[in-house]
Amino acid sequence: MPRRKKTRNKGQTATDAITWFNKAITLGKGGDYEDAIECYDKALNLNLNYSEAWNNKGIALGHLGRHDEAIECFDKALKLDKNLAEAYGNKGIVLINMRKYADATNELKAAKDLFSEKGAKKEADKAQEYELLAKNAFELILVLSPLDEKFIRSLNSESLTELKDKTMGIAKTLDDIIKEFEKKKLSEDVIHLLQTKAFCFTVLSNALSYEKVDMNKLAYAEALFEEWGFKEAAIAVASLIVFIQVISKYSSLNDVSKNVEAYLLELVRITHVLNGKLTEEISEVIREAPTVVKTPEPEAKVSKKPKTRKRKSRSRTRKRS
């Protein structure tokens, strides 16, 4: 006589899903994200409509740097529950890590609004903090872009005197930008990197003005760029060091021969990566800054069983990107 296939009771299935969900949370808190994901998958195999499990799986994937997969999980969670504020917030944080600051701002604003509607002030404030971080990062890149172009144009100077005048103006502008963004919410590492970048510009104009240059600080800048993996920027700083060593042999720019001047102008053109390339790399730093952008640990709500019926989708009242 053939054996009959055993069927699970719906209530038991929901309970088992919660059990796997809670186990995944414990593993995640211990930093064991791979095993946590396996447990979330087991919970989802029992109940695909478990929106909280999709959200928490996205968090674990985000910790592992699997950002595209994390976004897919948050989207599935939001398809099941469009009012799941945590999913909007976590999606926004991952978008920051992906350097998609405008999109991140929208998601984090949605999270903030939903938390506020629920009276969850602490969570709303945290979402607003991340929203501001994304907004400031986006604004910083926009502000730096035209300065990049201006600096590159200055490298086509036909004389050292012209180069001195142009770089002094750019250094002043960059210094003003730093002062403005120091008042805003940004990673301390990024601010420090911007200050180092400004110092490199100041070094160039100071050297051309025959003012004292802190060579130890310049060497530190080279080491900093190497530590962060900015190889081209480190090469550019090394070129600045050679530039200063050569020009310091003369009492004034008037004493520099045409041949040496041509050599110095060619040498300093390498420093263009201190602006154009480094701005791109700074955006990477903002994306990865561990001291500011942290994915919060999931908080489980297990007092009720997950819904097993699929909810009817309703059109959103506002666009979320």
Give a description of the structure.
The structure is a single chain. This protein has 321 residues and is mainly alpha-helical. It has 2 domains: 10-135, Tetratricopeptide repeat domain (Serine Threonine Protein Phosphatase 5, Tetratricopeptide repeat), CATH 1.25.40; 143-288. Helix content is 69%, strand content 0%. The protein is built from 13 helices and no strands. The longest helix has 34 residues, at 121-154. The protein starts with 9 loop residues before the first helix and ends in a 33-residue tail after the last helix.
Strand content: under 5%
- Helix/strand structural class: mainly alpha
Secondary-structure element series: HHHHHHHHHHHHH
- Form type: elongated
Output the number of helix runs: 13
Euclidean distance between termini CA atoms: 57 Å
Biggest beta sheet attributes: none
- In total, the number of strands is 0
* Low-pLDDT sequence parts: 1-7, 285-321
Mean pLDDT: 79
Radius of gyration: 27 Å
The tally of structural domains comes to 2
User: What helical percentage do the residues reach?
Assistant: 55-70%
Key structural traits:
321 residues, mainly alpha, Serine Threonine Protein Phosphatase 5, Tetratricopeptide repeat, 2 domains, elongated, disordered N terminus, disordered C terminus
